[in-house]
């Protein structure tokens, strides 16, 4: 009976659903996630775009980073993925940015657009006080 007066939402597990239904508990579904529209704008002629990301399982923890490159026609032209061992999430994001720049330099992609979801990495490139 207490299941029908709770304000909690049900999980998406089928076994939970069966158990709740067997006790005639009214199912309260979770609110849907927010869906964001993402629009890709083509690059300027002769530019290369690199999307990077880094992660760690724990902080510090086992970490990795990677990135992929596209040209102004949106063609995939390269990528990288690196196992970093044990480090922090910020360190893995920073290493991804540094590797992306090094790879682009070696490939002579001098007009590089670097995109990351890390605000700290973006700030690091704007201020040498964060990362020398």
Give a written overview of the molecule.
- The chain has 132 residues and is of the alpha+beta class.
- It contains three helices and four strands.
- The protein has helices at 14-22, 89-106, 119-126; strands at residues 48-58, 61-71, 76-87, 112-115.
- A four-stranded mixed sheet has the order 3-2-1-4, with helices on one face.
The percent range for helix content is 25-40%
Low-confidence stretches: none
Shape: elongated
**How many strands?**
4
Question: What is the CATH H-level superfamily of the largest domain?
Answer: Ribonuclease H-like superfamily/Ribonuclease H
Question: What is the number of domains?
Answer: 2
Task: Provide the fold topology.
Blueprint: H1 14-22, E1 48-58, E2 61-71, E3 76-87, H2 89-106, E4 112-115, H3 119-126
Parallel strand pairs: 1-4
Antiparallel strand pairs: 1-2, 2-3
Give short descriptive properties of this protein.
132 residues, 3 helices, Nucleotidyltransferase, domain 5, alpha+beta, single chain, 2 domains, four-stranded mixed beta sheet, 4 strands
What is this structure, in a nutshell?
The chain folds into two domains: 1-33, no CATH class; 48-126, Nucleotidyltransferase, domain 5 (2-Layer Sandwich).
